[in-house]
Description:
By secondary structure, the protein is an alpha+beta fold. Helices cover about 35% and strands about 20% of the residues. Helix 4 packs across helix 6, helix 5 packs parallel to helix 6 and helix 7 packs antiparallel against helix 8 (about 300-310).
Amino acid sequence: xxxxxxxxxxxxxxxxxxxxxxxxxxxxxxxxxxxxxxxxxxxxxxxxxxxxxxxxxxxxxxxxxxxxxxxxxxxxxxxxxxxxxxxxxxxxxxxxxxxxxxxxxxxxxxxxxxxxxxxxxxxxxxxxxxxxxxxxxxxxxxxxxxxxxxxxxxxxxxxxxxxxxxxxxxxxxxxxxxxxxxxxxxxxxxxxxxxxxxxxxxxxxxxxxxxxxxxxxxxxxxxxxxxxxxxxxxxxxxxxxxxxxxxxxxxxxxxxxxxxxxxxxxxxxxxxxxxxxxxxxxxxxxxxxxxxxxxxxxxxxxxxxxxxxxxxxxxxxxxxxxxxxxxxxxxxxxxxxxxxxxxxx
Length: 345
């Protein structure tokens, strides 16, 4: 969107979308409050913005009254802070959080956006799947829409979400036996590359297993999800789950799922990992890979790792609120449903 979003004519065109945004936000808030969640507000400035390879943060400097500089980051998610609150004893919390991610801009991405995160202590990630269905229905009612459409793909937000595992989706939509390329905690790069190329996916010489997985997901799987009814893509391979615990029945996959509508990813949920040693190992590996690819790494939040030792078994989920509003209102781009989009240089 051009920087003239404040032009009165342009703003007038967007006003119905922005009014609907407010109604949707209030509808979701009221549902969560009715389920005994507490709304929290966590700090945007963090010691670590997150420790996943492909997340890029905005860095700033805190200067103490004595003039000492310290690096801080704008959060890419409120996750670390929310989990500290779970460790402190809060049982059900949610936040409409402003978050920042660098190197992201397009119809579905924006450098600053709103993420709705909610957490349930002592409850399974399966419960979060039911939460997703309830919140989709309330968003549709608040927007006054019975069918959502994006790029020609339609979805009934009131329909029960269809559940499909990642392995099933790869087999159905790409003809790939994903589980044959997985050992416990690792992926067979050559095996997946051969199957991906047979499915018509271009594989570069320096693509690792996760790169190839992502290409298949984006090109073959995601466009088929959430058509007609919302979809829940579950049982993600363990190498792609930095913060989720393994499934007890099959440690090759994790308690992770994503929610889709109209081929658009809306939410990412976990059965949360609470082992500080394993979390440190995963974060260290992610940061080593980030330094290899991008020449930088982010510090680990030692307070977060210490809090994990006190955190009860929990589940948590992050939902892209702006994307939800975009689908619910029929807006073509994410910045059409933002009150003041970030200027595009």
